[in-house]
Every structure is written in structure tokens, then in C-alpha cells.
Write the C-alpha cells for this entry.
Amino acid sequence: MTTPQENLAGKTGRPRRWIRVTVDSLVLLLLAAIVFDAYYYEPNHPQVEAYPFPTAKWPEGQKPIRVAQLSDLHLSSYGKREQRVIRALNELNPEVVVMTGDYFGRKSYLPVMEKFLSQLPPAAIKIAVMGNVEHSLRIPPQAYEDLFARFQVQLLINSKVYLQMGKARICVVGLDDTSSGFYNPNLLHGLAPDDFNLVLAHSPEIFSLVRPNKTPNIDLILTGHTHGGQIRIPVLPAFWLPKDTDRYGRGFYRKYGVAMYLNRGIGTTVFPARFNCRPEIAVFELGAKP
């Protein structure tokens, strides 16, 4: 025969066990949702980030143009992610597509790169620069130039190209990778004040070269390299940032009247995961100031 105390312990013990099981189940469900998001959903669902970029250098009344930026593709296959990137790009119908380095990590992935380049918007002006991965593969720069040229992409290696857009002229400066030390900083000097001067560089380290009265005519710098940190848990530091980029992460940075945009990139490194940091296609609409 049970005592009243034993009956009470039995009655109160069951709810406590039920609560404990429920909490454990919720924690497991939460962890499963995070793993699903980080390893499947986010890496495979690129996001379009669109920014108006009004400038006094754009002729009043002239139609704005779209400049789309891709960075850090890290291609290994042509799968759902890559297809979504291409579909989004073609729907955006940009006048200019720029790519800021780190395209594929092994020589055996060259056919994947060729497939990707063949699907870029055919009517767009396409321009690319080198990243640190391109140098690590020890492929001669001329081979990269030939590869891109086959798909009507101009690879700028410490060089410039001028784009005439109606009455506006865009000077695109393409620096070789700053993180690898192959860049030529002199290209940032002496830019024409009436041109819209767009600088492409793989690493945000380029921003340290911006100096008052020395680089006065730069309007916009587009970079990548950091992947936005890849895994970003609120209030904690980013999971991964390359050497010498810990002061940066993602998005816009401004100083001395110069804007730099740091793209989160498309691919991943170290781990094939992203959390709170989806891949992105950045789009800048260049137009006149209101």
C-alpha cells in the first residue's frame, strides 16, 4: 500500500519527466533546423541585394544602369545554387556584370567554370579581376585571360577599361589581388574627376590605400574575400574572416568620401555552411542625384 507521500511523488514526477522530454525534443528540433539552414538552405539560396547609388557624375535625365557584382564563386559543380545565381542575374538584366575573384579551387573544376561563364547574361558587359585562389593554383595569368575572353569577359589585371554609357563615362579599375600582394596601387592615383571611377579588387584590404587628397576621385570600390564571415551568430564574432580583414565583414564602408562594398560571395570555404549570411548577388543602380 502506497503512502500519500509516495502518491504525491509519483504524480509530480511524471510532469517533470514530460517537461524534460519536451525541452530535450525542442532543443533537438532547433539544432536540426539550424543544421538544415546552415548546410542546405542558406548555401543554396542566394539573395539579391539591390542598392541605389546616385552620383553627381551621372547626367541629369539619363536612364540609370545596373551593375551586378558576383564574388567568391568557389565553384566545384554546376548545381542548384549556380543555376539560381544565373537565373537571378538574367532576370535582373544588368548592363554590367563584375566578378571579384576566387572562381574555382582546383584545376579539375575548369569545366564547371566554363559552364558557368557560358550562362552569364549575353548582352551585359562582363568584367572580372583575380583573387587569391587564382594565384594559388599557379595557372599563368594569360591562361585566365584566354579563359574569360572565350566567354566575352574582360579580365583586368592591374589595368583599366572605360565604358561609355550615354553621356556618362565609367572608368573601371581592376586591381590584381591585394591579399596576395600582386596589386598596383598606382592605378588609384590620377583618376579623372568627371569619370565615375569604379574600382574592383578581391580583398577589402584595398580600403587601407584610400587616403585623403591622394585618391580623391574614387566613387565606389567593390570587393569580396570575407564571405561575410559565413557563420554569423548574433553578438558573437564571425566564424571565419581571412587574415588582415577582421575589421571588415560585409556591406558598405565609407571614408574620405569613398564607398566600399564588401560582397558576401556565393561559395564557401573551410566548411560548406552558412548561417545568417546567405550568398549574395549585389546590384548597384547608378543614376543621377535627385
Summary: The chain has a mean pLDDT of 92. The longest helix spans residues 4-41. The radius of gyration is 24 Å. The helical segments are 4-41, 80-92, 110-118, 132-136, 141-149.
